[in-house]
Amino acid sequence: MGKSIASRFKNIDIAKSVLLSVVINDDELSLEMDFFLEPAHPDYEEPGEGEDHCFHPGMLKFAGISKLSLERAVDGAGTGRRFAIHSFNIEGTRFDMDCEWGAIHLQARSIRVLTE
Description:
mainly beta; six-stranded antiparallel β-barrel; 1 helix; 6 strands; 3% helix; 62% strand
């Protein structure tokens, strides 16, 4: 039996994480992230000098997408390469995120969290 959705995000604070890019391929969506890891996460490292938190590269991968809505921000917010996350919700197969990049709403058969 696979891991529950909630357990996949254990010790990762998505609201404090940062979106780096959005990639769409066929029925798959990948969100390249800098995950904010909590100390209990297996990939956690003590922050270096001048750093306050542990950020770790990774991805959110969604496959078997049946519904997808991407609403790209047009007001110039987040024009850099790192996009702050304002809200994040995952419920069953539904995923919703609002961030400086824009809004992402989808329904997918598979949701994976990958840390590099």
